[in-house]
């Protein structure tokens, strides 16, 4: 038995890759982004500023069509996140603000409300709907890849912070995927059951063509 244990530990030692493990990998944003992230800048050149990001202190630019500001802290904004599997995003929603149906293919989301009221919901792949009204201090989890949304649920500005289980969670907004590109209107009408006038109206509003 002792001999078997010794053999097992020997095999584990031979197959370990500790020599390849690094404490961090500050993204070199001048290079290409790959499925496994960015390449690392030399660790000897790292400074404390690589591990601090102050861009979420204030709201980002407002997107008028949704009456909200979305301020991400992903790898592109915060290179120190590269390879760490976490990221953050700030939402500032005007009283009429809405984050329309969208998905994050690469990450689960944890939403924390810090001001106002936010109605948050998601739709499972079984078409089961989960909607909650969140107040300051409340959190909700949104599973990876499912359609979800946020709406201001009160009469004043709402602020929330979303954390993700990836440094680059990805984003696809359903409305923009359907109406903000050159997909022919005839096809959009067939796959959405909308009439031609509705499709043309939405394409005009979101910048699509065809």
From TrEMBL:
Disulfide cysteine pairs (residue numbers): 25-40
Oxidoreductase as UniProt keyword: no
A Gene Ontology cellular-component term: apoplast
Domain Cupin type-1: residue ranges: 54-200
Residues annotated as transmembrane: none
UniProt-annotated binding residues for Mn(2+): 102, 104, 109, 148
Record's keyword terms, sorted: Apoplast, Disulfide bond, Manganese, Metal-binding, Secreted, Signal
Signal peptide range: 1-19
Localisation: Secreted, Extracellular space, Apoplast
Major place of residence: secreted
InterPro entries with a match to the protein in the record: Cupin_1, Germin, Germin_Mn-BS, RmlC-like_jellyroll, RmlC_Cupin_sf
Any matching Pfam family: Cupin_1
GO molecular function: manganese ion binding
Binding residues annotated for oxalate, in chain numbering: 104, 109
Family named by the database record: Belongs to the germin family.
Stated name of the protein: Germin-like protein
UniProt organism field: Dorcoceras hygrometricum
């Amino acid at each position: 038995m002792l001999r078997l244990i010794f053999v097992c530990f020997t095999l584990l030692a031979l197959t370990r890759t500790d020599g390849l493990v690094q404490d961090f990998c500050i993204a070199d944003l001048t290079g290409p982004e790959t499925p496994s992230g960015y390449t690392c800048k030399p660790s000897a050149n790292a400074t404390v500023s690589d591990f601090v990001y102050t861009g979420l202190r204030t709201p980002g630019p407002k997107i008028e069509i949704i009456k909200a500001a979305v301020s991400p802290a992903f790898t592109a904004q915060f290179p120190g996140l590269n390879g760490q599997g976490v990221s953050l995003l700030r939402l500032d929603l005007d009283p009429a603000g809405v984050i329309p149906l969208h998905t994050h293919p690469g990450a689960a989301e944890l939403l924390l409300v810090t001001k106002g009221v936010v109605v948050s919901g998601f739709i499972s792949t079984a078409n089961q709907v989960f909607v909650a009204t969140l107040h300051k201090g409340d959190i909700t989890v949104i599973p990876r890849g499912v359609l979800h949304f946020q709406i201001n649920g009160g009469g004043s500005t709402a602020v929330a912070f979303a954390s993700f289980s990836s440094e680059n969670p990805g984003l696809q907004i359903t409305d923009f995927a359907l109406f903000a590109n050159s997909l022919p209107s005839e096809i959009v009408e067939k796959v959405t059951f909308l009439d031609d006038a509705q499709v043309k109206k939405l394409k005009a509003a979101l910048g699509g063509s065809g």
